[in-house]
Specification:
CATH superfamily of the largest domain: D-amino Acid Aminotransferase, subunit A, domain 2
Radius of gyration: 19 Å
Structural class: alpha+beta
CATH topology of the largest domain: D-amino Acid Aminotransferase, Chain A, domain 2
Number of domains: 2
Largest sheet: 9 strands, mixed
Shape: globular
CATH architecture of the largest domain: Alpha-Beta Barrel
Bound molecules: 4'-deoxy-4'-aminopyridoxal-5'-phosphate
Order of helices and strands: EEHEEHHEEHEHEEEEHEHEEEH
Number of strands: 15
Helix content: 25-40%
CATH class of the largest domain: Alpha Beta
Length: 286
């Protein structure tokens, strides 16, 4: 049985409790982060901690603890649960005011709720899917317009994954005004004539921690990067495509809406970026 963390306590997972009045439960009034673990170490922890701070600030939520405390909790959970490869999930909500009310409760009397747990995923970095690539469908992006805040409002992304599954695919890319925003739980990229193209940062997409690292490594490796909008039609004519996220790292995409990209294999850019990302991130893992 796992040990989880709830509001200052390490508990067996079946003893951990959150109030039914918690605003995360009633209103999706909460934010989260997922940090992957490789070889027992945290990948990109700093990036996730900084983004968490920003998400909280944008929603006027008080930080539940300091970055140092957060790191200590992450490490303690990895150790207690003997995680070699896997992830640490963290969620902070605006707490449980003891009633249901749209107005935000006073943070002095309603402390935020903080929950962390681990998921073990042996061989996370050697996923067979990375060798064959993913198939995606496109769906309209009907999410709210603060996608830069990592909230727990994940119903539409869940629905998107189900639509993809029903179509015999692995994921969905979301489209707004004809342009690809991002994947249901990842940032989206295409490659044309060796150039890596991905949407620029704005409130329209989550500012992926993996995205930032991958683009930095790509530039360091003298690869050409262009941050701009691209349409789904352009994507279907690309030589390659891929997605990035903390739990999938760099994952090739080989088919979009039934259209095969290139020769239907992951190509060369995505696998190379995956290799560089894993190698460099492991060096800095803490
Ligand atoms: N976009 C969305 C909508 C996501 O849910 C995620 C995964 N959290 C990402 C992008 C990738 O972000 P990161 O690299 O920080 O995991």
């Amino acid at each position: 049985m796992r040990t989880v963390y709830v509001n200052g306590e390490y508990l067996p997972e079946n003893e951990a409790k959150v109030s039914i009045f918690d605003r995360g439960f009633l209103m999706a009034d909460g934010v989260y982060e997922v940090t992957s673990v490789l070889g027992g170490k945290l990948i990109d922890f700093d990036g996730h901690a900084v983004r968490l701070e920003r998400s909280l600030k944008e929603l006027d939520m008080a930080p539940a603890c300091t970055k140092e405390e957060l790191l200590a909790i992450h490490r303690e959970l990895v150790a207690k649960n003997e995680i070699t490869d896997g992830l640490v999930y963290l969620q902070i909500t605006r707490g449980a005011p003891g009633d249901r009310d749209f107005a935000f409760p006073d943070p002095d009397t309603t402390p935020s709720t903080i929950v962390l747990f681990t998921q073990s995923k042996p061989g996370l970095a050697n996923s067979p899917a990375a060798k064959v690539g993913m198939k995606v469908i496109s769906i309209p992006d009907i999410r709210w317009h603060r996608r830069d805040i990592k909230t727990v409002q994940l119903l539409y992304p869940s629905m998107g994954k189900m639509m993809a599954k029903k179509a015999g695919c692995d994921d969905a890319w979301m489209i707004e005004d004809g342009f690809v925003t991002e994947g249901t739980s990842n940032n989206a990229y295409i490659v044309k004539n060796g150039k890596i193209i991905t949407r620029e940062l704005s409130n329209d997409i989550l500012h992926g921690i993996t995205r930032a690292a991958v683009l930095r490594f790509a530039k360091e490796a003298q690869m050409e990067v262009e941050e701009r909008n691209f349409t789904i039609e352009e994507a279907k004519e690309a030589d390659e495509a891929f997605v990035t996220s903390a739990s999938s790292f760099v994952m090739p995409v080989v088919e979009i809406d039934g259209v095969t990209l290139g020769d239907g294999t992951p190509g060369s850019v995505a696998p190379r970026l995956r290799e560089i990302y894993l190698e460099e991130s492991l060096k800095k893992a803490i």
